[in-house]
Amino acid sequence: MTDCIFCKIISKDIPSYPVYEDDKVYAFLDITQTTKGHTLVIPKKHVKDLFELDEETAQDVFARIPKIARAMEKAFPNMEGLNMLNNNRELAYQSVFHSHIHLIPRYSKDDDFKIMFGDNSTKYSSEQMTAIAESIRKNV
């Protein structure tokens, strides 16, 4: 795709800071560096988001993530944890429409990254939870 910034990074038309590369996957430092070492893992094949990701490309990407995460852990001995994040579509904060996984090293509770999950457990009855699960299950 000619107007995709990540495709341009893969083709070396735009410079990046590579971390890992093979024939299917490219990983490079996120320019924002939310925390030191913040890395993006992307398929070389242009796929817009998780909803367009085929099984083979998903296997290619997700099979490399543990290797890259372990390399990050070795590179940053003071890393206390790691968030793996994937945003899909604009409402979910996807800003580059080429599927990508963020690997965000965590060094302390005070680093510049927060995730907040609301607790809506009291809003749904057991029957509603069963109906929600069934609605998803019948579409798998």
Order of helices and strands: HEEEHEEH
Describe the global form: globular
Question: In CATH, what is the homologous superfamily?
Answer: HIT-like
Fraction of residues in H or I helices? 25-40%
Q: Largest sheet, described in full?
A: 5 strands, antiparallel
- Based on secondary structure, the structural category is alpha+beta
The top-level CATH class is: Alpha Beta
CATH topology: HIT family, subunit A
The span between the termini is 29 Å
Whole-number tally of structural domains: 1
Low-confidence parts lasting 5 or more residues at pLDDT below 50? Answer: none
E-strand count: 5
Estimated radius of gyration? 17 Å
Level-2 CATH architecture = 2-Layer Sandwich
Structure in words:
This protein is α+β, with helices and mostly antiparallel strands and 140 residues long. It has a single domain, classed as HIT family, subunit A (2-Layer Sandwich), CATH 3.30.428.10. Helix content is 28%, strand content 18%. The protein has helices spanning 5-10, 55-75, 126-137; strands at residues 18-21, 25-29, 39-43, 81-85, 101-106. The longest helix is centred in the middle third of the chain and has 21 residues, at 55-75. It starts with a helix and ends with a helix. The relative contact order is 0.17. The model has no long low-confidence stretch (mean pLDDT 96). One of its GO terms (biological process) is nucleotide metabolic process. GO terms for molecular function: catalytic activity.
What keywords describe this structure?
140 residues, alpha+beta, HIT family, subunit A, 3 helices, 5 strands, 18% strand, globular, HIT-like, Histidine_triad_HIT, catalytic activity, HIT family protein
